[in-house]
Amino acid sequence: MAATVQQILQTKGNASYAVTPDTTVLQALQLMAERNISAVLVMEGERLAGIFTERDYARKVVLKGLASKDTKVGDLMTPNVLTVSPNHTIDECMCIITNNHVRHLPVVDHGKVVGLISIGDAVKSVMEQQQATIDQLSGYISGGLST
């Protein structure tokens, strides 16, 4: 059975970090550095307004010569973020990530953000699934040889 987003969130937790559109890029980067994360959600109250990532910083601040302390996240965030539900499978998430060249997927359940998964979370889940299959097949083969 394919692993789901809900299973990842149960393992890693639902913690996600957010800023508002009025947060400065410097403040967002400080939060990202403190939490050792590469993206923050941009929220307007309970509504997901966008996402701000290290990629956004590199491409939209550094390359354009903008000042991090004077630029607002809302001016540079990626709006219209692709999201997934807790019921999405990891295989579905990997397809979304690959086909859309994104690294983070906010998890939304009934209109509310309940977490965030990254490409690293998805890859780790796939690797764990593969290892479980290998262990199961190895046990089957070993058990079959001893009878």
Can you characterise this structure?
This protein has helices spanning 5-12, 25-35, 54-62, 73-76, 90-100, 119-145; strands at residues 18-19, 39-44, 47-53, 104-109, 112-118. The protein is built from six helices and five strands. By secondary structure, the chain is an alpha+beta fold. The chain has a three-stranded mixed sheet. The chain is elongated. 24% of the residues are buried. Helix 5 packs across helix 6 (119-145). Residues 10-68, 77-133 form the CBS domain.
- Lateral strand order in the biggest sheet: 1-2-3
Count the E strands.
Answer: 5
| Distance between the amino and carboxyl termini | 29 Å
Major β-sheet, in short? Answer: 3 strands, mixed
Give the overall shape, derived from the CA principal axes. Answer: elongated
Instruction: Supply the number of helical segments.
Output: 6
Low-confidence runs of at least 5 consecutive residues: none
Strand content: 15-25%
Mean pLDDT score: 90
Which percent range fits the helix content?
A: 40-55%
